Every structure is written in structure tokens, then in C-alpha cells.
Amino acid sequence: MPRFPADFLWGTATAAYQIEGAVDEDGRGRSTWDTFCAEPGRVRDGHTGEVACDHYHRYREDVAIMAELGLNAYRFSVSWPRVQPGGTGTPNAKGLDFYDRLVDELAAHGITPFLTLHHWDLPQELEDAGGWLVRDTAYRFADYAQLVHARLGDRVAHWTTLNEPFVQMAFGYALGVHAPGKALLMDALPAAHHLLLAHGLGTAALRAAGASRILLTNNHTPVRPASADPADIAAADAYDALHNRLFLDPVFEGRYPDLTAYGVSEVPGVADGDLGLISAPLDGFGVNYYNPTRIAAPEGPDAALPFTDAGITGVPRTGFDWPVVPEGLTDLLVDLNTRYDLPPVYITENGCSYPDPDPGPSDTGVPDPERIAYLDSHIRAVAAARAAGVDVRGYLVWSLLDNFEWAEGYHQRFGLVHVDFATGKRTPKASAHWYRDLVAAMR
Ligand code: PNW
């Protein structure tokens, strides 16, 4: 394994709804994910985040595990409805108290917190008022950012506004496979702009409050055309515009990409000044990477979208059937660094899931050789990008714990640490021990 600097950040990442549980405790409001989980047929086997990993009660044990693994960074998200139940107005002190205790516990173990303000669990009352399809939600987000910063800004340095606005728009509003379950196809585009505007307004609010390390986290995929056929190349370009450039060009260049392949001449709802807010300088950029995408021309002249997913063949696959292509991470980082003037980069998520049957703890521990191979190859891919000049400063495994994997419920396990969901018992997997040894060797 190539060497990383001694101050490189090594850690794990989680998100509030996926691990906390305690959905009705201490004045928490409802989120779109509570609603979505309660609708029959939305989440596999009717699983919900009601209990999840019970991290709300077991956070001390979870921080102790991170400390035992020698990790020096932890990315988590704040549940907006826990700290501001209806998404507006007076904060819920008990909700803020939880994050206060968590941040103190991390500090006591020398673990740098990376706080994400919004990882998809929008207060239901804001969704009822139009959610990310309406502009007002972006202003509500800026108020929320300010109130969380007022409580935690003295101890949290790294502030991430949003997690993966592409997935929130595409899965939540265009395809309807995530909360709030709307299948609007390209009519979901206002959600992209309002999410980006929330990022911009949130950044301005955090900056005014004195924050000095502000990030955005996107998930990106390097897009490969299925062949050298110009039709496939055009389709790949269209897909790249939607998945990658729609959330990059406004942030780093202050303009929207060309979306004419979608019959869209202009992103709707953009007001004077919006792009200036959205493109305000950032102090870091979070990249979530899982796999590349191979794109071909659409199947017929009447296809709903100007591309089709051609699939990647001949490589191993994770439990989600996602192809394992570590060099895609090097390609992605080098390409982003070439196309944009990036601030320091953090890999804010990377990892893999394995599905049922759950290997579970046995006398020999929890063996997960595929995850070790996945992490090893992807960390090498980060080293290769660094060697090519990309300023990557941290790597956070998705995820610390097996957790509520959205529409798949508890059927996909991403954790370095096994969770028995009947009892809450945590057991570090072989990959956790492997990661501990890797991190120790870099110090
Ligand atoms: C991310 N895709 O979601 C999220 O940030 C996590 O909350 C989630 O648990 C993790 O990845 C694993 O799914 C993604 O299809 C969902 O491109 C879908 C995609 C990418 C990321």
C-alpha cells in the first residue's frame, strides 16, 4: 500500500435516519422517510428506521469502536426534524442536546467531526408545503443551518451542507424510489435548483456565522460510452450532464450545463443572484464514489430519456449488483481535477454491501474478504489520484455500521461493524480489523 501523509483523515460515514432510531423521542418531528417507510410497498419487507442501530442511545459505544479502530474522522448527519421538528421556527433543545453529546464524545477521543446538515430526511411539514420542488425550502434550510451552527460551531469545524443532491432529486422526485416518492421524471428539475440554492444560501449563512470549512458532498460516476459510435458518445454526454455536471458546473463555474438533450432549454426557477450564491467558494469538496456507468444510445426513438444504462460486464459485483471498478475512482478524481478548480477533496463515502444471507458473527469473527479487497483496491485508487496531483485529504468508509439501507431496508449490509438488529449487538468484521491495521501503519 502506498503511503499517505500522517495527517490524512481516516474514518467512516453514517447518516441520521439510517442509524439513529428513536424516531419519537425527545420531541423529534416526522421526516419524509418516516412517511415513506409507512407506505406499503415502498421499502423492502416494510422495514423502517424506527429503531435502526439505536445509535441515539448507543452513540458512546459507537464512538468507542471508532476509537478502538484508531480512526481520526467521523462523518455523520444531523436529523433536521430532530432539531427543528416542523422545519421552521424554534429549535428543539433536546434534539440539539443529542448532537452536543455526540460531538463532545468525539472530541474526547480525538475524532474530527464532519457534520452533514441534510442527508435526505426532510421535515414532513416542509414536504407538505412542496418540499424541494419549492424555493422556500432553500430559505428554511439556511435558517436551519444557522441554528445548528449556533449550537455546535464552537466544536465542529467541517460543515457539509447537503449529501448527494443528485440522488435526492433523481430517486426522490424523478423516479420515486426514495422519499418523498414522486415520479416526475424531468419535471423534478426544480428540485435540483432548490437543493443547489439551499447549498448556496446555507453556505452564506454558515460563512456569516464564522464557519471556515464548508463543503458540499456529491456522488459522482465516471461515465463511459458503450462504444465509439457517435450515438453512444452523445448519450454518455447527456448522462454525464444530468448526473455529474448538473451538480458541478453551477457550484464551480456558476452556470448550468447544456440540457437540451432532455428538451430543457433552461433550468426552471433560477432567479438573479442564485448562481452567484451557489458558486461561492468552498473549503472542501466531498466525493462519494461507488461505481462507473456505461451508457448507450436510447433504445427507441420514443425513449423517455436520451440514454440507456448498458451495464458493465466482466468485473466482480457487490450485493447491490454494483460493479467493482476501483480505477474508476482514480479516473473520476483526475477528471474532476482537470475540469474544475477544486478545493481540497475528501472521499466522503466509498464502500460495498453484501446481502442476505447475513454471514453473522461466528467463532472466527465476521469474515468479509470481499469488503477488504474492495477497500484495499479503492484506497490504492485514491493514492494513484494523489500521485496524479489531486489534493485528496481524507477517506471515509461507507459505513461504520450495518444500517437502514433506504429502499432495501436492512437487506444490504455496508458496515465495517456487524449489527444484530434483534439485539443491537455490534461486532467488528474482519474488514474493521484490516482498516485499523492500515490506518495504524500510516501514522
Ligand atoms: C449513498 N446510485 O446513496 C448514500 O449517501 C448513503 O446514504 C447510502 O447508504 C449509500 O450511498 C449506499 O447506497 C447512493 O445509484 C444511492 O448511484 C444510490 C447511488 C449512489 C449513492
TrEMBL record:
InterPro entries: GH, GH_1_N_CS, Glyco_hydro_1, Glyco_hydro_1_beta-glucosidase. Keywords: Carbohydrate metabolism, Cellulose degradation, Glycosidase, Hydrolase, Polysaccharide degradation. GO terms for molecular function: beta-glucosidase activity. It comes from the Bacteria. SUPFAM superfamilies: (Trans)glycosidases (SSF51445). Belongs to the glycosyl hydrolase 1 family. Its EC number is 3.2.1.21. This is Beta-glucosidase. It is an enzyme of class 3 (hydrolase). PANTHER family: GLYCOSYL HYDROLASE (PTHR10353), LP05116P (PTHR10353:SF36). It catalyses: Hydrolysis of terminal, non-reducing beta-D-glucosyl residues with release of beta-D-glucose.
